[in-house]
Amino acid sequence: MPIVIEPYRQEHEPAVAEFNQRLRAAGADQDFVFYPWATPRWLPPSGNSPLNNKFFLALDGKTVRGGYALKHQDFLFPDGTVRNVAYYHHPLSEGIVDKAHAIVGTLLLRDALNRSPLLYCLGMGGYQNPLAQMLGVIAPSRSGSMSSGRADFCVKCKPPAPHLCVA
Q1: How far apart are CA 128 and CA 108, in angstroms?
Q2: Cα(first)–Cα(last) distance of the chain, in Å?
Q3: What confidence tens digit (pLDDT) does each residue in 130-157 have?
Q4: Which of 15, 60, 96, 142 could anchor a disulfide with 64, C-beta 3.0 to 4.6 Å?
Q5: Per-residue pLDDT reduced to its tens digit, 77-108
Q6: Phi-psi group of 15: left, alpha or beta (phi > 0 → left; psi -120 to 50 → alpha; rest → beta)
Q7: How far is CA 145 from the centre of its chain?
Q8: Alpha-carbon distance 58 to 33, whole Å?
Q9: At what angle do helices 130-143 and 103-115 cross, to 10 degrees?
Q10: What is the DSSP-derived secondary structure letter of residue 97?
Q11: The domain containing residue 147 runs over which residues?
Q12: Which CATH number is 52's domain given?
């Protein structure tokens, strides 16, 4: 049966729990689990709001093989237009523990690009990791152009206010 990617619905929650359990049983990092609830706790879709989070699942029949989230938000571009851009986050594929499902990660990314051509990713852990490598192969073939770059963060820690200090 072909993999189909569709929005995560409440009826999928037991299959997502089974997916997460298969990942844990196969030795995946304990942090590699997909959302247990179909409705996002942070920025759930609400009316016509352009700011929202949506979850999607890769289904092999009724079996979950992966999933990802898109956080949609309007951005003002330098040309003065406002466009909806999506943050691709928490992609997870059973391919990390079972090579029979290695294609799922690619299918997730392609689906996200089809749903939201203006897509960005953060926190991939470096160019050597699978998602960064896929972005370098898939996105240019889809749109003919893609930019990627390193975004270093600079954090300046200030001492706490005097009233927070204990003498």
Answers
A1: 19
A2: 67
A3: 777 776 655 454 445 555 555 555 556 6
A4: 15
A5: 889 999 999 999 999 999 999 999 999 999 99
A6: alpha
A7: 21
A8: 14
A9: 50
A10: T
A11: 4-164
A12: 3.40.630.30
For the record, the structure tokens of 56 come out as 């999607």
Of the two residues 42 and 125, the one the predictor is more confident about is: 42
Please identify which residue in the block is written with the tokens 């992966």: 66
* Cα 139 from chain centre: 15
In this structure, what token pair is assigned to residue 16?
């997502």
Tokens in use for 25? 């049983």
Nearest to 96 by CA among 53, 66, 133, 51: 66
Strand ranges in the chain using DSSP code E only, listed in sequence order: 4-7, 52-60, 63-76, 82-93, 119-120
Residue 123 in tokens = 């926190």
Question: How many domains, in total, are found in the chain?
Answer: 1
Q: Identify the DSSP state of 115.
A: H
For 117, phi then psi, to 5°, come to -60, -25
- At 155, list the tokens: 């954090």
> Order of strands across the sheet with 63-76?
4-7, 52-60, 63-76, 82-93, 119-120
Would you call 78 helix, strand, or coil by DSSP? coil
